[in-house]
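Why do we care about 3D structure at all? Because function follows from shape, and shape follows, mostly, from sequence. That is the central idea of this module. The next example makes it concrete: a single protein chain, its amino acid sequence, and then its structure expressed as tokens.
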Amino acid sequence: MARTKLILATVAASALVAQSAAQEVADWSDFKPCGDADAELVLREVLRIGDAEGEGIIERDNNYVYWSEEFGYFVLDSSMRFKMFDHEGRFVRAVGRRGEGPGEFNAVTSVAVVGDQIVALDVARRIWQFFDLDGEFAAQRNFSFSGNHFVPVGGDRVVVAGLDPRPDFVGHPLHLVDLDEGAPSLHFGAEEPANWKATDPWARIAVVGPGSRAGTIWGGKAGIPTLREWSGDGELLRSIEGELPWFPRLDQHPDTRRDPPGSMINVVMADGGDRLWMQTSLADERWREALVEQEETKQLADPAKVFDIRLDGFDLGRRCHLGRREWELPGHWLFDRGGEAMVQVVSYDDPLVPQVVVYRIGWP
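And the structure:
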């Protein structure tokens, strides 16, 4: 019996060593500047999306862009539909409308091509909607909780970010979903060292983005700077812990009568060159004025007065910080274009005609 226990203990220890060796752990303090400590990321315009009139017009300032190799760009400029543009930025068609029926949305938050179909997640109705590549409605399936954004990880599988509020799943921010079924088959992402707690600030806001390799993702909680890379099957591959000078960990809900609202991750992704990109919201210097005004008027505060936007790039191989870029205005969003990090910005060449400008990111 003693010999059996010894063998089992040895096997278990060997497995633990192998698992630990497979997981790469770094600290943000490891990422020194790649060059100039004050290096600013450079944006180079690629194309503009949006017509001067008709269905191809961009309808709001705060848009979300997704890219598909099959035909081009999805633009979410409305909560009740998405628009399709080709690789040159030419309008193709609008898909969806407000409603409760097939092909209708209340709040579409994420769109992607998965296999041979377009998949859209309606966070309000908690359903998946499926369309063919021409944008024609094909089917819909229920989803069990309020997911936010999803990333395809191969086959008909996606990983969805969002905290499932049911007791048996509380704390798991990432969920593997087989779209043939529509329901999660695996819940993961709550392991140490992030110390995920359902009561933490921003606990219900999770982020997920593509990894450097096919089928991998980066994810974490919006209010904690710890980020982790996972396989699509929930295997932990890499972790970056610690704090950043502009992003200290938020352990309790701030009292915004005296404290700034706290930093929060908006978007995270890695590109094909094993560079990690992170977009965060930081408290604007006018945050107090904006929140006092909100309390007095009972109207939502101007987001441009509450938060600024910051974009940072990190070279994971060299473990260094490529640079950063900051904006005072909302409407700047990081997105993935086939393994390349891009930035979308709303611009007005004509005061009445907004366009989405797509930029490639460069660094010194």
